[in-house]
Amino acid sequence: MERPYEEVADVSPPTDFEFGSLANSLALLLEAATSELEHDREAAKTTLAAAASILRSEIDRRSAVHGTRTGGLAGWQIARVRSFIDRNLHRTIHASDLSAIARRSTAHFSRSFKLAFGEPPHAYIIRRRLEEACHMMLTSSASLSEIALNVGCSDQAHLSKLFRQAFGQSPANWRRERETPWHN
């Protein structure tokens, strides 16, 4: 039997490369929102919401690493679970995997996770998948079907369904609205 909690040892702060990638994604989102304000306020609001979500995730991640987050899980549990999710977005993640990492029963873990993260594990994983999909759409030329598989969706239709529920538009439209001249 696989013991996923043994796989998670590194909960160190992000490297300069990771920070640079995060900062670049946020800058692209903010630039897109700025240009959208002139002609499409709803698109601008959606872009700002994506940027805020990415920034909130990073703030939460850093808080957990430094032990300032309170709730149903200890700082080390939050850091290990978050790290495991981020490294495994491309595959199916079961609550039992996460509970093993936190060394809690699945039921206790699920309640504690919601206290610590403010949402159930499944909702958090979906949100992180969508955030990563947004990042990939802004920073790569990968096809939507490739992006869908890379973030753990079964296919492009699955990504589109989740994306439309969260952002009110298809990933293709979202990406097209945010294309910049240097991405073409």
Distance between the termini: 47 Å
- The total number of structural domains is 1
| Count of DSSP strands | 0
Query: Residue share in helices?
Result: 55-70%
| Secondary structure tally, helices | 9
Radius of gyration, taken over Cα atoms and rounded to an integer in Å: 17 Å
CATH superfamily: Homeodomain-like
Summarize the structure in words.
By secondary structure, the chain is an all-alpha fold. It has one domain: Homeodomain-like (Arc Repressor Mutant, subunit A). The protein has helices at residues 16-39, 41-65, 75-87, 95-102, 106-117, 121-139, 144-150, 156-167, 171-178. 30% of the residues are buried. Residues 1-14 have low confidence and may be disordered.
